[in-house]
Specification:
Length: 191
């Protein structure tokens, strides 16, 4: 992968992301366009998304760092601040952007958003309504979908059969959320 032709700042940020990834986050630039990144974020511990593995895409526009990166979820997620197209309602990706922020900061902020859904500033109004009317039920549904993402991620990841013996669904498995896992996955994937 040649970083020649990119601004020095992007080169430094890319090298740091690859050499020293943030906990629970991987970001790899595309070989054919080093402004595009494939991102994987693990749901934060203690959040409804803790058992999830989420794929995102990140793009650095020509104006970066004067303009924020473009980030969106590729993995379906039930979150009031993320819509069905994967667009994210996060202030630093809009009016609170500063050239002092970096790709790493953006990805950590997206991961933190998973810990703190904000139904008062929604992008997905139906999900926000569910969170406001019954937060516990909405979080349970988010948790179930997040667990389905882990299942999908592991099925489509290389080496799946090597990891089956140590594949925990965290504490949610013991709590009975996965009694009808395949039914839940099929319903969710059909939406």
């Amino acid at each position: 992968m040649s970083l020649a032709g990119l601004p020095k700042r992007i080169i430094k940020e890319t090298e740091r992301l690859v050499a020293d990834p943030a906990p629970g986050i991987t970001a790899s630039p595309h070989d054919d366009n080093l402004r595009y990144f494939d991102v994987t974020i693990q749901g934060p511990e203690g959040s409804p998304f803790q058992s999830g593995v989420f794929k995102l895409e990140l793009f650095l526009p020509e104006e970066y760092p004067m303009a924020p990166p473009k980030v969106r979820f590729l993995t379906k997620i039930y979150h009031p601040n993320i819509d069905k197209l994967g667009r994210i309602c996060l202030d630093i990706l809009k009016d609170k952007w500063s050239p002092a922020l970096q790709i790493r900061t953006v990805l950590l902020s997206v991961q933190a958003l998973l810990s703190a859904p904000n139904p008062d500033d929604p992008l997905a109004t139906d999900v926000a309504k569910h969170y406001k009317e019954n937060e516990q039920d909405a979080q349970r549904y988010s948790c179930t979908q997040a667990s389905a993402t882990e299942l999908t991620y592991r099925i489509h990841s290389p080496g799946i059969f090597q990891n089956l013996g140590r594949w925990p669904f965290s504490s949610h498995y013991q709590s009975g959320l996965f009694v009808n896992l395949w039914e839940i996955v099929n319903v969710w994937m059909s939406r």
